[in-house]
Amino acid sequence: MTKTCIDSTRFGRIEVDEEAVITFPQGLFGFESCRRFVVLCLDEKSPFRWLQSLEEPNVAFVVIEPSQFMPDYAPTISDADAHALGLDADTPYLTFVIVTVPPGKPEEMTANLMGPIIINASTRIARQVIVEDDCYTTKHSIVQEITKRAREGTNAGSHTQGESEHRD
Amino acid sequence: MLVLTRKVNQSIVIDDEIEVVVLEVRGEQVRLGVRAPKSIAVHRKEVYEQIRQENLNAATVSTEDLLRLQKQLADESAGR
Questions:
Q1: Which of B57, B63, B77 is nearest to A49 (CA)?
Q2: Is any Cβ of chain B less than 8 angstroms from the Cβ of A135?
Q3: Which of A123, A63, A65, A71 minimizes the C-alpha distance to A92?
Q4: Contacts with A104 from chain B: Cβ below 8 Å
Q5: With contacts defined as CB-CB under 8 Å, which chain A residues touch B40?
Q6: FRET pair for B16, CA 20 to 30 Å: which of A1, A37, A127, B80?
Q7: Which A-chain residues 2-31 have CB contacts (< 8 A) with chain B?
Q8: What pLDDT sits at residue A168?
Q9: Model confidence over A126-136: pLDDT tens digits?
């Protein structure tokens, strides 16, 4: 099987199967030349993953599945984005959001809910989409939500939804 | 840049399939309507800028910052 290699800045040499490669035909906003990425899981117990570029050794983003902190996250995917991703109503897809951690201030970590990454799970074609739903911002604070869910998970083991502010 | 003068209800057509109509002019604000195929994405430029800037911020996160964060989250979850 064909392998792709990159000597990444953060993680050293990474070797991935071609079938694990995620392709962003347009790149990401601000990183238009980065088209090929891989999702790295460095710690099974952590909800965070790294989205590592296979073309630029120093380009890597911390990402998380929004279900880990906001189970009712439901961005509207535009027809244009669905078309570009080749998504039909029944195509399986994955959603990740990019996390920003201000240097030295982990408690101020935020997630970008306005520009989620959608991956077509069948083709592994991905796109950073723009969500214009008013309730989602580029700097959504997530530390409390993650902690709260972790506590619920360890203490009760049940899926209490809590008082989530659901919008219609 | 191509510059065209239009009045209310007049429009321009781009590439035979995208139409931009001037709907209303009120003081310094102009309301535009865009008629385009579903495969064309249309957003205000600020939105692109905002997401681009946030990507640039996110790209500087170090592995040390994330490890520190994970430790902090683990501690908080354990109620420490």
A1: B63
A2: no
A3: A123
A4: 65
A5: 80
A6: A127
A7: 10-11, 28-31
A8: 42
A9: 999 999 888 99
3-class state of residue A51 by DSSP? strand
- Predicted ipTM? 0.85
pTM: 0.86
Q: Is B77 helix (H, G, I), strand (E, B) or coil?
A: helix
Distance from C-alpha of A35 to C-alpha of A21, rounded to nearest angstrom: 10
Average pLDDT over residues B41-65: 92
b (16+ CB within 10 A) / e for B39-51: ebbeeeeebeebb
Contact at CB, B66 and A79, closer than 8 angstroms? no
Per CATH, the homologous superfamily of domain A3-155 is: BH3618-like (2.30.290.10)
pLDDT tens track for A62-104: 999 999 999 999 999 999 999 999 999 899 999 999 999 988 8
Query: A133 with A119: CB under 8 angstroms?
Result: no
Q: Between A and B, how many residue pairs show a Cβ–Cβ distance under 8 A?
A: 102
Q: What is the DSSP letter of A125?
A: B
The sign one gets for the Cα dihedral A87, A90, A91, A97 is positive
A22: enclosing H helix or E strand? strand A22-23
Average confidence score pLDDT of chain A: 88
B65 part of contact set with chain A, CB < 8 Å: yes
Which residues 43-62 on chain B approach chain A with CB closer than 8 angstroms? 43, 47-48, 50-62
The reported pLDDT for the residue numbered B79 is 67
